[in-house]
Amino acid sequence: MSKRSFLFLQGPRTPFFKKLAAALRLNGHQALQLQFNEGDGVYWQGLAMQYRGRLENLPQNYRQLFKNGQFTDLVVFGDCRPIHALAIPEAKAAGLRVHVFEEGYIRPHWITLEINGANAHSHLPMDPTWYRDVGPSVPAEKVESFPGSFSQRALHDVAYNLCNLGNYLRFPHYQRHALHSPLAEYTAYIQRGFKVLLRRKANRKLIEQLIASRVPYFVLPLQMDGDYQVRQHSPFADMKSVLTHAMNSFSENADSSALLVVKNHPLDPGFVN
């Protein structure tokens, strides 16, 4: 097996990239991370470089980094955040193989890994009949649950962002890809958490009544407001515009006896009512 050299950019705010890099090194490959803020180094162990410049200068820095053949592979989590979107075309042009991780298309228990891009950039077929034809031939595998939880995810997120309080010293030009600051997000999550607890019993009863009523209904599961995939790859700017479009279409086309059931994203912080 030929030995490869992997350059990691930003990963999920968990130890996943650190463990993946350790496994690659164990198999004789090289793994190095390019860090953009203090938080990137929290869950990394091993060789790393830092980029402390401005976003607009990144393409030429990537070009310089990739041209000498030091790296054979690029590894990213998500292909839409600006520092990754700028890296991928430069990596392809230099002949690197690009590995894009994402939240699992099928959850729980699964993560998504694709070559060159995910979601709208995926090479998976767009024709639903392909999945119906191929699905029955996919071998069944035993699935084991893993101990993931919201509290565990929140702990990693807080640790990452606490480290980023020092960005102004070493990474003064770093720009978050998220719409809101961590403090604003955490405040909103706490407020929404209390609302969810207060409404949990009423929501469960509402769902039970809906199912028992046998009334035909259509479910509209919302994405997180401001989600990068929605902003980059859909005609909608936010969930408000999705709701407006869906409700107008439903009122014009659905049978009068049918209901439209809107399900909020479980991790939406609630900036928009």
Describe this protein's structure:
The mean pLDDT is 91. The protein is globular, with a radius of gyration of 22 Å. The termini are far apart. Strand 5 (97-103) and strand 6 form a beta hairpin. By secondary structure, the chain is of the alpha/beta class. The chain has two domains: 5-125 and 145-164, Rossmann fold (3-Layer(aba) Sandwich); 182-263, no CATH class. The protein contains ten helices and eight strands.
Q: Nutshell version of this structure?
A:
The protein has 273 residues and is of the alpha/beta class. Helices cover 40% and strands 15% of the residues.
Straight-line distance between termini: 54 Å
* Helix-strand string: EHEEHEHHEEHHHHEHHE
Structural class: alpha/beta
CATH architecture of the largest domain: 3-Layer(aba) Sandwich
Evaluate the radius of gyration.
Answer: 22 Å
**Which CATH class of the largest domain applies here?**
Alpha Beta
The description of the largest β-sheet is: 6 strands, mixed
Uncertain residue segments: none
Percentage of residues assigned to helices: 40-55%
Number of helices: 10
Strand content: 5-15%
Number of domains: 2
Question: What distinguishing features does this structure have?
Answer:
273 residues; globular; alpha/beta; 8 strands; two-stranded parallel ribbon; single chain; Rossmann fold; 2 domains; six-stranded mixed beta sheet
